[in-house]
Structures are given as C-alpha cells and as structure tokens.
Amino acid sequence: MDVDTSHIFAIDGPETFETCCLAVFNYQYQQNPVYHTYCKLLKKHPDNITTSAGIPYLPIEFFKSKSVVTAKLKAKDPIIFTSSGTTGSTISRHIVADITIYERSYLKAFEHFYGPIAQYCVLALLPSYLDRQGSSLIYMANDFIHRSHHKESGFYLNNIEALKQQLVRLDNEGTKILLLGVSFALLDFAETYGLSLKNTIVMETGGMKGRRKEMIRSALHQRLCEGFGVEHIHSEYGMTELLSQAYSKGNGIFKCPPWMQVSTRDTEDPLTPQAVGKTGGLNIIDLANVHSCAFIATQDLGKTYADGSFEVLGRFDHSDVRGCNLMVI
C-alpha cells in the first residue's frame, strides 16, 4: 500500500490527522524493515493498533545505526541529511527518498505561522552549518533565500559588518525581515551591535555548537531581546531526523503544523505516556516522514500543554549535544 502525501498536507483537524496517522503506520509497518522489526519486538502490528495513541515510537538512535527508510524507495537516489554531532560522535543519517515532501513541509509550515516566505527578506546567520555538508537546515534556508522576493536575501558567514548595515537599512525602510541564526552567532552579533529593530523577526535555531557556554533559553532570549531591541525572540525546532519544524513566537512555547504532533513519555519507562504539563521525553509524530519513520522517540526533555503546544527543557543525560534546537536546563 502507498500513502497519498497530498492527504498529509491537507490535514485540517483531529479526525483527518488520526486517519493519516493510521495510514502511515500501516504503510511503514509493511514497508520499513527497521520499524517493522521494532514493532514486532513490542508485539505491535496493524491488527492491534486502532488509534494513534497505540502506535510505537522508534528510538531516534536508530538513525545512527540503521537505514530508516521504506524498502521500495531505498534503491533510488536519495538525499541524505546528517546531524552535526560532536567530534568523535556517531552522526545520524536521514535518508530522504522524496525531497519534494521536505520542501512542501517547510514551506507550508512557515506559511502556516508567518505567511509566504516570498514576503520576507531572509538573512541567514548560520556559520557552523555552512561549514559542513548534509545540513537539512541549510537546505531549507537556501530555498527560503531563493524564494524570497528580495535581492538582499542571503547567507552571512564572516561579513558581519555587512549584515549589520543591511539589517539596519532594510529595517528602517520598513522591509519585513527574517533573521535566521544559530544561537551563538546571534549572541555574538547582539553583543557587538546594539540595535533597535522594528520590522525584523529574530529567529534562533538553537545550540551554541561548543562555541560558547550553553545557556537556558530564557536567559539567551533576554540578552538577544536587549541586543536587537525586539520584544520577542522566535525559535525554530527541527532536527535531522524530522522533515517538519515547529515554531515559537516567543517564550519558548512551540506550536506544530497540522501534520505534526508532540507528546511526552515517562522518563523511566519509555513505553508509558507522560501526563500533559509534566516533564517527559518528547515523542514526535511527523507525517512528512512518510518514507522514513513518522513516529520518533527523541532524546529531548520537555512538557506538552492542553492546546497542543510544547516547550523543550533540555536533553536526557548522556545524550549527544546537538546543535539544531536545544539549550540545557
């Protein structure tokens, strides 16, 4: 069986989400050898899974040791996204059989929360990501830049003074700006230049990447607000193993696009759900991962709330320090 991906991006409520979840689960149980084996070990299969609440979440570590992809697409020529990791660590590999699904996901997700990307001048301050190959964040940012209707959109690596001049000029002209940056680079910039921006969304993608001491998100955001002269710092939550992103418009509270959902699990018993409002491991349903695994147990700690939003509080002990979304507790 196949899954019609147009149905995934047409989800408009709990009923259509539930229907798509079960369809994707059945498809991945049949077509993804790694996920199939994991489900069999838990004695879970389509005959005894009748709601999305019973679907098993694959531990994210499998993306380091296995090819997590549907069998019939494995032989094609996929794009492979890789995690940054740290020196000597094992990186994750996400085999993306159909890159157009990723493109559709990040474009629709951004538009869902902020409107069409074409409206924005996109200034990307992502030095650590530009230094390596295989970054899904760079792929997304590059496409944002190309789809922007502003010739000034682009990446900034070491030309920080040029970025400052562009940012101030465009903001003063009333241009809608998306300043997308890794945390340490935004902090360096904010501490060098004291700005007062009126038309700019400052969005951090998380992580100090070993360049600076890790900070709790609230402290980071306070310093960034002061340095850029803005009321709120926006955040993007994504990772190599996901083809969708959640966004926060302030205070570190993230919301998901309609085809993505976050829940929590007990920190001591990974198969037991955690209550809303209590700290647990984050489990993510990302239906854009239709050809890899849409049901992932991450190594992130956080809380979920009754309206479907969530916050990220840190990492499990001994899990990898990852650059794409986190600060420590």
Q: How many structural domains does the protein architecture include?
A: 2
Low-confidence stretches: 321-329
**Which percent range fits the helix content?**
25-40%
Order of helices and strands: HHHEHEEHEHHEHEHEHEEEEEEE
The chain-level structural class is: alpha/beta
How big a fraction of the residues is strand? 15-25%
Q: What's the arrangement of strands in the largest beta sheet?
A: 5-4-6-7-8-9-10
Give the radius of gyration: 20 Å
Please report the total strand number as a whole number: 14
CATH architecture descriptor name of the largest domain = Roll
For the sheet with most strands, the description reads: 7 strands, mixed
Number of H- or I-type helical stretches: 10
Shape: globular
Q: Output the CATH class name of the largest domain.
A: Mainly Beta
Mean pLDDT: 91
| Spatial separation of the terminal alpha carbons | 43 Å
The name of the CATH topology of the largest domain is Luciferase, domain 3
Under CATH, the homologous superfamily of the largest domain reads Luciferase, Domain 3
Pfam families: LuxE
InterPro entries: ANL_N_sf, LuxE
Organism: Croceitalea dokdonensis DOKDO 023
Protein name: Putative acyl protein synthase/acyl-CoA reductase-like protein
